[in-house]
Design brief:
The protein has 5 helices and 11 strands, in the order ββββαβββαββαβαβα. The protein is an alpha/beta fold. The chain has a single domain, classed as Nucleoside phosphorylase domain (Rossmann fold, 3-Layer(aba) Sandwich), CATH 3.40.50.1580. Strands 1, 2, 3, 4, 5, 6, 7, 8, 9, 10 and 11 form an 11-stranded mixed beta sheet that branches. The longest helix has 24 residues. It is globular. It starts with a strand and ends with a helix. It binds hypoxanthine (HPA). The site of hypoxanthine has 12 residues, from strand 5, strand 10 and strand 11.
Length: 247
């Protein structure tokens, strides 16, 4: 079974034919909300709203470990994560969909590993390619089939938030090689790898990052809502198609 973790603009998957909800407890505490089972693209999927169903959990307060643990616990094989992002590269403007292939992590003070504690062996995971090649290809093939343009490959820079970045911070991220910027990609992707879950992300660009393009002087948060709605609808279409063709 596949899971979809929905971000801002995707707190409810209205295309999902709900069957049941499951409240989970984990050794790491409670996930962002109940797991919602349903059907999408004629397949059973489980949906989890990363920020909670009422969008009340800020990026730095999300219990990423509980979310990933809960999905692992119920036997999920792969996770499709939807995340709104800012475009660092000018051509990645509002309304662009991106399937990133790399990550730079600028977050701090988040619980970012399952491998800790007095009785845990020191464990390292390989994270050279942070996203599952197979799930990325599923998304790209689905986008082609659905006729939805997506950008194949980008470096996702994950910042701590909840504030947006300064123009200088975005300049630095650009120099580092970041293409898009968001606040929730990490430690989610790393925890999925630690848990042995395949994981890929679909980035929904809702604004030019600070100091870039239309965001020279400020990021007008009130402008983001409508772009988010339209673009998330397209993201859901891609997910539906990906699940329809899933093996
Ligand atoms: N920065 C960080 N996270 C974001 C942005 C941004 O510009 N837009 C949407 N999520």
């Amino acid at each position: 079974m596949y899971a979809i973790i929905g971000g801002s603009g995707l707190a409810k998957l209205s295309a999902l034919q709900h069957t049941r909800r499951q409240v989970m407890r984990t050794p790491y505490g409670e996930p962002s909300g109940a797991l919602t089972y349903g059907e999408l693209g004629s397949r059973e999927v489980v949906f989890l709203a990363r920020h909670g169903y009422g969008h009340t959990i800020a990026p730095h307060e999300i219990n990423y470990r509980a979310n990933i643990w809960a999905l692992k616990q119920i036997g999920v094989q792969g996770v499709f994560a939807v995340a709104t992002v800012g475009g660092v590269r000018l051509e990645l403007g509002p309304g662009t969909l991106v399937v990133p292939d790399q990550i730079i992590d600028y977050t701090h003070s988040r619980k970012s590993t399952f491998f800790e504690g007095a009785d845990a062996r020191v464990t390292h995971i390989d994270f050279t390619l942070p996203y599952s090649a197979r799930l990325r290809e599923m998304l790209l093939a689905a986008a082609r089939a659905a006729g939805e343009p997506v950008v194949d490959g980008a470096t996702y820079a994950c910042t701590q938030g909840p504030r947006l970045e300064t123009a200088a911070e975005i300049e630095r991220i650009a120099r580092d090689g970041g293409d898009i910027v968001g606040m929730t990609g990490m430690p989610e992707a790393a925890l999925a790898r630690e848990a042995g879950l395949e994981y890929a992300a679909l980035g929904v660009v809702v604004n030019h990052a600070a100091g870039r393009g239309a965001s020279q002087k400020e990021i007008k948060l009130e402008d983001l809502e409508s772009v988010m709605k339209q673009t998330v609808t397209r993201a859901v279409r891609i997910l539906e198609q990906a699940l329809r063709s899933a093996a």
